[in-house]
Amino acid sequence: MIINFGSHIALKERNCISLATGLAIALQKYPNLRVLWKLKRAHGLPLDENLTTSLGSAWDSGRVKIVEWFDISPAQLLMLPGVVASVHHGGANSYFETSR
């Protein structure tokens, strides 16, 4: 699963924690699911401990990776085998990248 809210959207902490809590449920139900999450945050700030705690054992086991930027384009990521879902903000680029 790829989570990408674009370059300009920074979620509030409580929204990130809500998303992480929901992800933890999905990750528990689907033990082979892994998540790559592009999360914009102020440079130099560490991940919020409440966020990583909300992810539970999936965070501890490395099934969730949170990055500030993707090394390749989102469109290239979505073409990789095994990508089963994309969560995005609904902007035009995100929509067209995921509808291929």
Oligomer: single chain
Low-confidence runs (pLDDT<50, min 5 residues)? none
Number of helices: 5
Level of helix content?
40-55%
CATH topology: Rossmann fold
CATH superfamily: Glycogen Phosphorylase B
Q: State the order of secondary-structure elements, H for helix, E for strand.
A: EHEHHEHEH
Q: What's the total number of strands? A: 4
Strand content: 5-15%
Regarding CATH, which class?
Alpha Beta
Structural class: alpha/beta
Distance between the termini: 16 Å
Q: What's the Cα radius of gyration?
A: 13 Å
Estimate the global geometry from the Cα principal axes.
Answer: globular
Q: What is the topological layout?
A:
Elements: E1 2-4, H1 13-29, E2 35-38, H2 49-55, H3 57-60, E3 64-67, H4 74-78, E4 86-88, H5 92-98
Parallel strand pairs: 1-2, 1-4, 2-3
Helix pairs in contact: 1-2
Which short descriptors sum up this protein?
alpha/beta, four-stranded parallel β-sheet, single chain, 100 residues, Rossmann fold
Report on the architecture of this protein.
The protein has one domain: Glycogen Phosphorylase B (Rossmann fold, 3-Layer(aba) Sandwich), CATH 3.40.50.2000. The chain is an alpha/beta fold. It has a four-stranded parallel sheet with strand order 3-2-1-4. Helix content is 40%, strand content 14%.
